[in-house]
Amino acid sequence: MIRTLLRTTKTSYIQLNQRSTIRFASTKHGKVLTTETMHPLVKSVEYAVRGALPIRAEALSQQLKKDPSKLNFDKVVFCNIGNPQQLNQKPITFFRQVASLCENPELLKTENRALVSKLYPADAIARAQVLLKNIGSVGAYSHSKGITHIRENVAKFIERRDGYAADPENIFLTQGASEGVQKVIQLLTQNQQSGIMIPIPQYPLYSATLSLVDAAPVPYYLNESQAWGLGREELQKSVDEARKKGVDVRALVIINPGNPTGQCLSEENIKEIIQFCHEERIVLLADEVYQTNIYQPERRPFHSFKKVLKSMGPEYQEQELFSFHSTSKGMIGECGRRGGYFECVNIDPAIMEQLYKISSISLCPNVHGQIMVDLMTNPPVEGDESYPQYKAEVDAIFQSLGRRATKLAQCFNGLEGVTCNDAEGAMYLFPQITLPNKAIEAAKKEGMTPDSFYAMGMLEATGVCVIPGSGFGQEPGTFHFRSTFLPEENLFDKFCGSLEDFHKSFMNKYRD
Amino acid sequence: MIRTLLRTTKTSYIQLNQRSTIRFASTKHGKVLTTETMHPLVKSVEYAVRGALPIRAEALSQQLKKDPSKLNFDKVVFCNIGNPQQLNQKPITFFRQVASLCENPELLKTENRALVSKLYPADAIARAQVLLKNIGSVGAYSHSKGITHIRENVAKFIERRDGYAADPENIFLTQGASEGVQKVIQLLTQNQQSGIMIPIPQYPLYSATLSLVDAAPVPYYLNESQAWGLGREELQKSVDEARKKGVDVRALVIINPGNPTGQCLSEENIKEIIQFCHEERIVLLADEVYQTNIYQPERRPFHSFKKVLKSMGPEYQEQELFSFHSTSKGMIGECGRRGGYFECVNIDPAIMEQLYKISSISLCPNVHGQIMVDLMTNPPVEGDESYPQYKAEVDAIFQSLGRRATKLAQCFNGLEGVTCNDAEGAMYLFPQITLPNKAIEAAKKEGMTPDSFYAMGMLEATGVCVIPGSGFGQEPGTFHFRSTFLPEENLFDKFCGSLEDFHKSFMNKYRD
Predict the structure, then answer these.
(1) Which residue range or ranges hold the Aminotransferase class I/classII large domain (chains A, B) (predicted)?
(2) Which of A136, A480, B332, B499 has the fewest CB atoms within 10 Å around its CB?
């Protein structure tokens, strides 16, 4: 250890002698730690989903509590992020019952059984007992990869979903999918010439993580006029251009169903992507957190990359793949719990050891998140006491999400100069707005991008917080925004109405 | 966003042209992602607390389940990490009651009140109601800094503890203290010449994080012969040497009470350290997660760095300080929940904005961890229905920890060639072992450090898993190990006995 310390320090000494500018914090006045002296990579990161718009929305929310008289709305509606329970989506009863029993094992004692069985169904009690037998206490650090029993259940879930075997040793439980993505990207990049292909538009976790690890994002564009489709041609163009410039392209991120774009890939399309990765020697990162948010299940069912890969010829059976999932999305929406997992397919065992090591620095994913992963992948089944209620709850959320997706797309498509693809999946719409030149000029005067100007106008007028397309990436010269379709269904007409009113008055003000 | 992407990519292109060796993953055969192509900084990280010893302990644990006949023990005792509930420490009843009610708000409905009031005391119900009113649902993402109400409660706790004001806006809730430490260190370093002072021995989170961000650890030594004391002289020597070599020393990590060393700093000593940091323009990182694990409270009470700083003259009132706390330690031991916070004292508001941005990439700390922070900082008080039970539970754990600390130190000091300082605080002892040359030779043959050889021998013989001193750093030529004193008190004599037996037979085998 000491040797390591000294060696590392020595390396630093040598390398810094080769640098031309040395700035000592200690020679300056005022604060030692400032935006001048802080880490430049951290400074360069952008993360719009929680950027200027949500910060302003938070301030308006506070103002509503103190002095609502000056605002034209009585509520801030947070459509900036897929956070269903913030917008009053009810949690799945069975999941919360089991989790609360694990939290308070006193309830499982014999002397409390009579009372507790009036509050809890027998299958929730039984599940909590099985979990606690395997976990010990939710207050103890678990294995850094996650609790073995839960990883076994995840493997069985994947097997049922795909029809192909899964090994619990290839599964890492994580604090939401984001943590897994960050760890894998960190490991996958070697230096500034390492490139990772990301879709445009993308979820900004990817660009932010690449900024932080100082690797090169290699953008490929989704085709808006073909329902945000993705062809091999575009992937090939993207990788060829990057390699011509000397970038070592190592991995391809696919978000399926898409975020912010909501498309769901066909099996054929997935095959094409796998062929591309195989031929180009590129690791696949499949962000599949919206795998149950599928609104046209007959036309566009969800196919996991793992399943499609396994169904292909022997030449593809070494293709390296990471697949990410989360408890935050689906019909569960347990975002605050920070639960998730990733599966490693055909990943070098030595790399999995490195992933274990890096996971162990944070000790373990939080156990409550792990429990929710168990419940998500292992819900009540037909015949279980809790199944009818579970099914009714999940179905109601699913159908309502589908209705709201359709309604919001209709609302957007009815607006002057706005076009919007349907959501085949996920929780978002990403409409394109043709902004008048006058609006673009006005935005320039405010020092804002035109889409931010529009979104900020919407927030100030309606209390609805969406995220400008520039936060996700968009074809130059086009303007978009991302909105969830999560507002409560009984308030949805009012929600759409306020967006229509705002858009009309915005266009009346700025129409060329 | 697009512009940012292109710019970043372009930078990479330019910079890589200046590099001599370019290795394309795509020109190789076999796996794309290997330990050859992975990120070299990740590869270089060491993390002994969950390294070779715990991995072997895990394997032995599995073997005990399958075929215990070949092992000399019936249980693996994990003393490698402070994980009290893994070793059957009972959680605080009130905390779990509140947490389980927050998890299952159905229990708070009027129709369930009669039943629930037989299972839960009124103050737990009332607390859960207040929390849920402020949180909404535990399933929703919260503010990235943590729930405002809980940050307000943390601020009040700090005020009560220190007698000086605390601002909730300066508090960030985190997933354990580790996450906060990693974020702050990442921000504090600028490049390879940025140095952060860390104690030797240290908790390996610090060296691992510095490895990951490619900054220079600047070691200072704790004085074992003076109860792991720390003088200004040693700090001065360390910073002077580093600066002479061109390192930009920016921060000083102090772990108080110490980990792995268990010392608790006097107020005078803390003043001296603050003076040093002020004069040398060094940011203070105070790792104070063991602040309630104080076993000689009259001789060595805990003083927070914030309190001591505030008590000093006006020239110190701009000293930058981060103070870290956790729900994993104390008498609570809620490790699996991953809860914690840090307070920013005199930190540039622009830096706090950067910390907010970086926190927002992971969306929020898990809400269950946040709830435990609320309970830890705001426990039942005299007059509350739950106070007598809370006090009895905390006192029992506290007294038992004190007894076990003393007993284990006595055990170690009774062994041939072993000396061990008392634990004034924390959960560990860090005895020094004088190993015979024969043992050092035998270790060499096995390709192990002598302390790893000893610890591995102990594990194989007794099932007790400790961590060799080389995992924490130690004076060259000395050998130590870290053991928690957390095994259950009713098994403690057996535990000590098995260590004694092992040590005797080890010494008989290798005595020079």
Answers:
(1) 121-491
(2) A136
- Ranges of CATH 3.90.1150.10 domains, chain A: 48-87+390-510
Please, which residues have CB within 8 angstroms of residue A262's CB and are 6 or more apart in sequence? Answer: A228, A405, A421, A422, A423, A424, A425, A426, A428, A429, A430
Identify the pLDDT of residue B48: 74
pLDDT at A362 over 80: yes
The dotted CATH code for A141-377 is 3.40.640.10
At residue B371, the 3 state secondary structure works out as helix
Using the structure block, give the residue that is written with the tokens 């396994």.
A310
Tell me: pLDDT of A89 over 60. yes
What pLDDT score does B82 carry?
94
Distance from CA of A285 to the nearest CA of B (A): 12
Residues B250, A31: C-beta atoms closer than 8 Å: no
pLDDT above 90 for A8: no
Direct distance between the N- and C-terminal alpha carbons of chain A, in angstroms, rounded to an integer = 68
Query: In this complex, is the C-beta atom of B210 within 8 Å of any C-beta atom belonging to chain A?
Result: yes
Q: Which of A10-24, A377-391, B374-388, B394-408 has the lowest mean pLDDT?
A: A10-24
Q: Is the pLDDT of residue A3 over 60?
A: no
CB-based contact, A360 to chain B, within 8 Å: yes
The predicted complex's ipTM stands at: 0.92
Which A residues in the span 364-423 are in contact with B, Cβ-Cβ below 8 Å? 364-369
DSSP structural state of residue B321: E
Task: Enumerate residues 6+ apart whose C-beta is below 8 A from A313.
Answer: none
> What average pLDDT does range A442-448 have in this prediction?
95
Give the Cα separation of B202 and B222 in Å (integer). 9
CA distances from A334 to A151, A491, B311 (A): 19, 22, 44
Mark yes or no for CB contact A363/B176 under 8 Å.
yes
CATH of domain A48-87+390-510: 3.90.1150.10
Per the model's pLDDT, the better-predicted residue between B44 and A405 turns out to be A405
- The answer to whether residue B211 neighbours chain A at the CB level (below 8 Å) is yes
Asked if A32 and B210 come within 8 Å (Cβ–Cβ), the reply is: no
Q: What is the separation of C-alpha A12 from the centre of its chain, rounded to a whole number of angstroms?
A: 36
CB contact under 8 A, A103 and B107: no
The mean of the pLDDT values for chain B is 92
B112–chain A nearest CA distance, Å: 8
Tell me if chain A has a CB within 8 Å of the CB of B486.
no
Flag whether residue B312 sits within 8 Å of chain A, measured between CB atoms.
Answer: no
Low-confidence ranges of chain B (pLDDT < 50): 1-27
Q: Which of these, A356, A365, A301, A295, lies nearest to A141 by C-alpha position?
A: A365
Unique residue bearing structure tokens 């805990």: B302
**Per-residue pLDDT at B337:** 95
Chain B, window 99-128: residues with a beta carbon less than 8 angstroms from a chain A beta carbon: 99-101, 103-107, 112, 115-116, 118-119
Return the bridge partners of A323, or none.
A286, A343
Going by C-alpha positions, the residue among B289, B223, B210, B305 that lies closest to residue B250 is B210
Region for A496 from its dihedrals, namely left if φ exceeds 0, alpha if ψ lies in -120 to 50, beta otherwise: alpha
Is the pLDDT at A136 greater than 90, yes or no? yes
Q: Where does CATH 3.40.640.10 sit in chain A? A: 141-377
Q: Does the predicted TM-score (pTM) go above 0.80?
A: yes
pLDDT bin (cut points 50, 70, 90) of residue A28 is: low
A58 and B CB contact within 8 Å: yes
C-alpha distance from A201 to closest chain B C-alpha (Å): 9
Question: pLDDT band for position A13 (50/70/90)?
Answer: very low
Across the interface, which of A97, A190, A215 has its CB nearest the CB of B40?
Answer: A190
Task: Reduce the DSSP state of residue A207 to 3 states and report it.
Answer: helix
Query: Which is nearest to B478 in space by CA: B440, B428, B445?
Result: B440
Q: Flag if A1 and B189 touch (Cβ within 8 Å).
A: no
Say whether residue B45 is in contact with chain A using an 8 A CB cutoff.
yes
